[in-house]
Structures are given as structure tokens and as C-alpha cells.
Amino acid sequence: MIQTIYVMWLRQLKRYWRSKSRLIGSIGQPLLFLVAFGFGFSPVFEKAGGVDYMQFLVPGIVAMTILFTSMFTGIEVVWDRRFGFLKETLVAPISRTDIMIGRTLGGATISVIQGLVVLLLAFLIGFRPVSWFSILPAVFFMFLLSIFLTGFGTAIASRIDDMQAFPMIMNLLIMPMFFLSGALFPIDGLPSFIKLLVLVNPLSYGVDGLRATLTGVMSFTLPLDLTVLAGLSILVNLVGAWLFSRIEI
Amino acid sequence: MIKVMNLTKNFNGFTAVDDISFNVGEGEIFAFLGPNGAGKSTTIKMLTTLLKPSSGKLMVNGFNPLTQQDDARRSFGIVFQDQSIDEELTAYENMEFHGVLYGVEKETRTERIKQLMEMVGLWSRRDDYVKYYSGGMKRRLEIARGLIHHPRILFLDEPTLGLDPQTRNNIWEHILELNADDGMTIFFTTHYMAEAEEVADRVAIIDHGQIITSGTVEEIRSSTSTSSLEDAFLQLTGRSIREENATSMDRMRLRRGVRR
Ligand SMILES: Nc1ncnc2c1ncn2[C@@H]1O[C@H](COP(=O)(O)OP(=O)(O)OP(=O)(O)O)[C@@H](O)[C@H]1O
Ligand SMILES: [Mg+2]
Predict the structure, then answer these.
(1) Domain boundaries, chain B
(2) CATH of domain B2-85+154-259
(3) Which residue in B has a C-alpha nearest to residue A88's C-alpha?
(4) Among A142, A212, A219, B171, which is least packed by CB within 10 angstroms?
(5) What is the pLDDT of residue B254?
């Protein structure tokens, strides 16, 4: 069981590592956001008496990197279906839960790597965490968030056989999740109906957990962030395993 | 080894497999023949847990593919009609992946992968990415891969499609050897009648989702008073090219379109 999960994980990583365009392409966007928003809004933010905006923004951009990478990993399932490899895993005598976990861990690992690269670039342009030791719990949060989002994207992908439809559906989900998560602006002073949307958005808890560990600023509490993300991770993976058991080719 | 009873598969009102029944004994080499769109691949997919039957009973190596999926899955190896290898991996990595999924021990795995890749003449190209392989090389790799875990039953859906005669002979030789030595049951489809004539113990011919005849090659030839399986096949299934399938598919799409 561990071995099957391991080979599935390894396969994802090899495919990722060999596709240099994916490697570079997925870092361009967060970098653009970081520079444009970071330098663009910093003066406004400071004038309004807030803290250093760059400090505020970086955890949000790391979460955004993870959001995009994780959700789009699901497309691997659509590719595998399209190019036939999905059949090879489906006829193998392994539990559908293992298939789901293998895929999720593979995608999540890639997301964390991407997130770390963005964090590293943020250090270069002046971002400083509260303490260097806080990186460790931050990586843990990145991993948890990645597992949830990869599982989510993969579960959705198991129902889709159209290569064109997948990115459209993903963008439909990703955009509101990103903008209503507190990644770009503080959620405390928001009108109540928007705040409600932020509260039901799982990404908000990932952003909050990252910001809390990296900068010490938070809107919720760490145990709450942890519980929400862990609970959802288990849920999407169970649902995903069930969906995988129902795939017909 | 394989039992099929009143098996039916409907796709949105179109019946691809229509109430078929047959048995394949242990160690038997069984050829499943029929024109394009007859329902051969659909039957194989149901036997190999990829599709759920609309009705009917199935048994693979004594296991029900619907309820004892993993036991059934452990029993067979399969070479699909269309490609199922990961092109972004090397040939060796594809083989290794398969071996691990089927729980073949490391030592045995390494040994068998080498032996099988030598058999299909790909050992020296093992570290090439599959995307740089020719069509025939990919086919050979798929066949080698299906044998790593020494299955009790081997499903081959048009295994020799696109292979040169040398490779074809070579691969059949190896498969027949496995059949003779380990009693591996072989279930295969092909459009080369000579191939079926040569290797099959028993043949079933399916057309429009229904089995129209089955028996040994000898029996089928004599019942149709023909001298070759190809003549018998043409006599039984007619000479017209199968475009009915296309039209029935179109009709189906049309019907679906109207409903929407
Ligand atoms: N997923 C599907 N949805 C709808 N129709 C399908 C599906 N799969 C197969 N069919 C139809 O079922 C029929 C049988 O297809 P099948 O692939 O089993 O034929 P086959 O005997 O393997 O033919 P070939 O020799 O061309 O491989 C065809 O008419 C095909 O169009
Ligand atoms: Mg077919």
C-alpha cells in the first residue's frame, strides 16, 4: 500500500520535474501579483495606517500559488484519461483510496515546492518572517492546504473528460476563492455579506494559517484553521476515492 | 476461467453487447472475433472492471468483477486496444510502475522486466522516453508490461495491430510458451483471421453485439462449408462494411440532442 502510493507520488514528481515550462510558468503569475500589488498598494496601505503591506501580502501570494498549482494538478487525471494511462491504474489491484492518496500527495508536494520558491523570491524582495523558525509551521500549513486543494481538484477532475472544460471550471472556482480569501486585503472591516462569503471559503483558513505562522497576524485562530483544513482534506479525499471507484472508461 | 452469462451493455439506449453467454476454460486460447463495432472491446472492458454491465453475470478466475474487484484484477493482465502507457516516462519506468502496482517483489520484478524487455527487443532502449518510441515499439512495450505479474488470464485486445511479422511471431511464440508452461488462459481479439486460425483453441464470432457462432476453428469451417476461417467469417458476418454502427451512433446522438 505504501509502495503503491509511493510510485504514484514519484511518477507525479518526475512528470513535473521534466516539464520545465510548467515549472517556470506557474511561478510567473504569483510573482507578477507580488510585484504589482506589493509595490502598487504599499503606499496606500501605509497611508491608511496599516502595517507594512508587503508583509501582509506575501502569505496571501504563497497561498495563491498553492491554490492555482493544487487545483490545476487535477488536470493530470484528465490527461491520463485522454492519453489512456488512467486505464492502467484503474485495472490494477489497488484500492481507489490509494490511487486518490497517491495523486493527492504527489500534487501537494509539487504545490509546496512552488509555494516555497515564491516564498524564497519574497525574501529576496525584502519580506521577513517574525522568526526564521516560523517557516517550519508555515510549511506544514502549506502542505495541509495543498492536500485539501489537490484532493478537491482531483476529485472534480475525475468527473470530467473534456480537456477544454477543466480549466474553465477551475477558473470559475479559483477566482472567487482567491479574491474572497483575505489574501489581498484584511477581512476585518468588510461588509457583513462579503465577510460571510470569506468565512465559508476554505482558502481563507489557509491564508490565515500562513499569515499567522509567518507574520504573527491573524483573523481566526490557529486551531480553527487547522481543524477546518484537516477536516476538509479528509473529506475531499474520501469523496475522491469514491468518485474514482465509479469511473467508467 | 471466464464465465459470461446473458451479458448486456447499453450506452444511452444503444445496445453494444446484447445478451451474450460463453465460457473459456483454464489454459484455453480463446479468440473473440467480429467486425468493427461488434462489441468486443466493450465485453473486455466489462470483464476487466472498467465498465459495469447493464445486466448479466460475469466470472473471472472464479471472482465476480463487480463485487470482488481486486481479486479479479489480480487475476488478469491486459493489453488494451488503444494506448495506455505514460509517454512522459521512460519504458523502464513504465514497467517498474506496473510491477509495483501489482505487488511483484523487487528482485523478481527486476529480473522479469529485463527478460520481457529483451523478449520484445526493447532492452537496449529501456531508458528512452516512450514519447520517442515508434507505434510498434509502444505496442511491444504494452504487451511486455501486461506479463510482468504473470497473470492467470491474459486479455489481448488486437495485440498485434501495427506490428511487423517478425515481432508478431516472436510475441506469439512467447505467449504460447506461457500458455503451455504455466497454463495461462488467453483471451484475444484480432482482425487477422490467419492469426486466430493458427493459435486459437476455440473461437467465438460476435456481430452487432450478439454471438453468432462459437466452436473450434474446424467446427466453424465445416458448419459453413468453407476452407478458411476468413471465408467462414465473411459468410457469417456478410460483406458489407460496418457503417451501421456509425449511423446508430449518430441516431443516438441525435436522440440525445433532441431531448436536451
Ligand atoms: N462509451 C461509449 N459510449 C457510447 N457508445 C459506445 C461506447 N463505447 C463503445 N460504444 C459503441 O459500442 C459499439 C461496440 O464498440 P466496441 O469498441 O466494443 O467494438 P469492437 O468490437 O471492439 O470494434 P473494433 O474492432 O473496431 O475495435 C460501437 O458501436 C461503439 O460505438
Ligand atoms: Mg475494439
Answers:
(1) 2-85+154-259
(2) 3.40.50.300
(3) B84
(4) A219
(5) 46
